């Protein structure tokens, strides 16, 4: 009988080019899931050239699977329009409670409930490449115009009342200043996650690594400005 493999307490997972750092306890929290079986020590797992455990799935959506294993709650950003894709990932990983959470009424899951006037969510996405950090934002158009009227931004996508685009942030403006700006407008940081997105260039025998962080800010109380 083959001996069981041992895994480190803290490990890196390369999921479709996105590198996540987590613990063995988190990744095996559902022992009946595919992840629980993979890291039970009884299976051989592929590794990339850097020694990260490799899973050939959607790297971006995996963060929601991992966050569910961390908290046992399904907390998705608003707006979120990839329920079908996330269901497919939950089915693949066989995380039973996540599958159940995603079965809650289809129509209710497909449409985000309207927020009261002045309330809502703004997501800040920070991407670092060659020492340069770019900030992107997503949220309801009226909220973004209210909060960031003094900033220059360019919208690249529109989905109904939701928009997303890129900040033009002065080089002396740190993320902390942007976060303080949100706090002054009544927003609080509700969650964050991040990792490394690696894109391979086989024709050059090289790859490019881009760090990213995503911050979700929520305003739950109507302001009297």
How would you characterize the overall build of this protein?
- With 225 residues, the chain is of the alpha+beta class.
- It is built from eight helices and nine strands.
- It has a nine-stranded mixed β-sheet.
- The longest helix has 13 residues.
- The radius of gyration is 20 Å and the shape is globular.
Summarize it.
With 225 residues, the protein is α+β, with helices and mostly antiparallel strands. The chain has helices spanning 24-27, 34-38, 59-71, 83-93, 96-101, 106-110, 141-147, 175-184, and strands at residues 10-15, 18-23, 53-55, 120-129, 132-140, 152-159, 162-168, 188-201, 206-219. It is globular and about 60 Å long.
Q: Strands across the major sheet, in which order?
A: 3-1-2-8-9-4-5-7-6
- Roughly what fraction of the amino acids lie in strands? 25-35%
- Provide the succession of SSEs: EEHHEHHHHEEHEEHEE
Proportion of residues in helical segments: 25-40%
Structural class: alpha+beta
Output the number of helix runs. Answer: 8
Shape: globular
Overall radius of gyration:
20 Å
N-to-C span: 70 Å
Low-confidence stretches: 105-117
Question: What is the total tally of β strands?
Answer: 9
What is the mean predicted local confidence, pLDDT? 77
Q: What oligomerization state is this entry in?
A: single chain
Q: Tell me the major beta sheet.
A: 9 strands, mixed
């Amino acid at each position: 009988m083959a001996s069981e493999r041992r895994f480190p307490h803290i490990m890196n997972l390369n999921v479709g080019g996105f590198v996540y750092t987590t613990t063995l306890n988190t990744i095996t929290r559902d022992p009946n899931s595919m992840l629980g079986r993979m890291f039970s020590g009884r299976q051989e797992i592929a590794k990339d050239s850097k020694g990260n455990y490799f899973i050939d799935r959607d790297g971006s959506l995996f963060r929601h699977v991992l966050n569910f294993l961390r908290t046992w709650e399904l907390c998705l950003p608003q707006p979120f329009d990839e329920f079908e894709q996330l269901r497919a990932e939950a089915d693949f990983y066989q995380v039973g409670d996540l599958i159940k959470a995603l079965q809650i009424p289809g129509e209710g899951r497909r449409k985000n409930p309207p927020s009261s006037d002045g309330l809502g969510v703004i997501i800040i996405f920070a991407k670092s490449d060659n020492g340069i950090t770019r900030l992107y934002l997503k949220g309801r158009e009226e909220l973004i115009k209210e909060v960031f009227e003094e900033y220059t931004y360019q919208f690249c996508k529109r989905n109904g009342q939701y928009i997303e685009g890129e900040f033009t942030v002065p080089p002396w403006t740190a993320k902390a200043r942007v976060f303080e700006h949100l706090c002054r407008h009544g927003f609080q940081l509700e969650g964050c996650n991040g990792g490394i997105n690696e894109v391979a260039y086989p024709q050059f025998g090289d790859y490019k690594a881009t760090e990213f962080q995503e911050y979700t800010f929520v305003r739950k109380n109507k302001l009297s400005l």
